[in-house]
Amino acid sequence: MAFEDLLEDPVIQKYLHELVGPKGMPVAAAPPDGEVTDEELAEELDLELNDVRRALFILYENDLASYRRLRDEDSGWLTYLWTFEYDNIPENLEEEMYRLYDALEQRQEYERNHEFYLCEICSIRFEFGEAMDFGFECPECGSPLESMDNDRLVNSMDDRLDALEDELNIDADA
């Protein structure tokens, strides 16, 4: 998939934004062809050099950019030439989806195996043991804690897990 196609996808735009944040998004959204220095990017995009470097490092950590170093023979200074490698984005997104799936499975298990109590005034949720320690009274306002039905939450997690299984071609019964 070409850079242009990738960058027009709202999912990929959101992914890049989550990685580099608003200050780094101009760097992530405008990958040049070939190699470029951080100074050239900062000047071209009219950004602070530290913001450009931070974005490049985050992209590097996520296998979306690479660099090679050149040492100036006279001064000994190192120059970093950056290359963007957005071909890795689909694979990275798939890994993120698997991490989400695993975390959601763990959270669903936690929700199913615990009993919860809620302070309806403060909207604070307690596990059974905590509620018992507080005498089934909210430690913030003193209101009685009510037993909480989390079936809707667990069912929503079921729906999301099913959607992820379809997307990732996971056989949940296997």
From TrEMBL:
This is Transcription factor E. Transmembrane segments: none annotated. PROSITE patterns: HTH_TFE_IIE. Transcription factor that plays a role in the activation of archaeal genes transcribed by RNA polymerase. Facilitates transcription initiation by enhancing TATA-box recognition by TATA-box-binding protein (Tbp), and transcription factor B (Tfb) and RNA polymerase recruitment. Not absolutely required for transcription in vitro, but particularly important in cases where Tbp or Tfb function is not optimal. It dynamically alters the nucleic acid-binding properties of RNA polymerases by stabilizing the initiation complex and destabilizing elongation complexes. SMART domains: TFIIE. Belongs to the TFE family. Keywords: DNA-binding, Transcription, Transcription regulation. Residues 8-90 form the HTH TFE/IIEalpha-type domain. The keyword Transcription applies. The gene is tfe. The keyword Transcription applies. Monomer. Interaction with RNA polymerase subunits RpoF and RpoE is necessary for Tfe stimulatory transcription activity. Able to interact with Tbp and RNA polymerase in the absence of DNA promoter. Interacts both with the preinitiation and elongation complexes. One of its GO terms (molecular function) is DNA binding. It comes from Natronorubrum halalkaliphilum. SUPFAM superfamilies: Winged helix' DNA-binding domain (SSF46785). One of its GO terms (biological process) is transcription initiation at RNA polymerase II promoter. NCBIfam families: transcription factor E. The winged helix domain is involved in binding to DNA in the preinitiation complex.
